[in-house]
Amino acid sequence: MVELLQKDGRLTIAQLARDLGVTEVTARRKLKRLMSDAIIRVVATVDPFDVGYETPVIIGLKVQRNRLDEVAERLSALPQVRYVGASTGRVDLIIEVVTRTNQDLAAFLMNELAEIDGITDSETNLIVRIYKQSWHWGIGDDAE
To answer: What per-residue confidence (pLDDT) applies to 23?
Structure first.
């Protein structure tokens, strides 16, 4: 079911049931459980450039290790931040931020990000074009 929804999140219960070879009641129950257990969320995704957001960025952050969770929680609460992940390598956290303009991005970097205690360094990378953005990453492929 997850693989089917990764390909098309708009499938109806009837279509899911048919593709899975189960009853609609079974498909509805399974979908409800997957959603209530927070295993899946069905949402619409957009290319930020197509809806007027001209400055998506990936920011690598160096963070005081003992404040990693605190910093990640603060970042997660900011509306401009779309993704927060702990990382190995040169940075401790990687975040994705989407703002409409360079001025909005500057305000985010100089005001909101700068106010978070525990961040020791940052590297901001502006995304100028998106070549691929996919949520289908192979569930079910490993089972074959």
So the answer is: 94
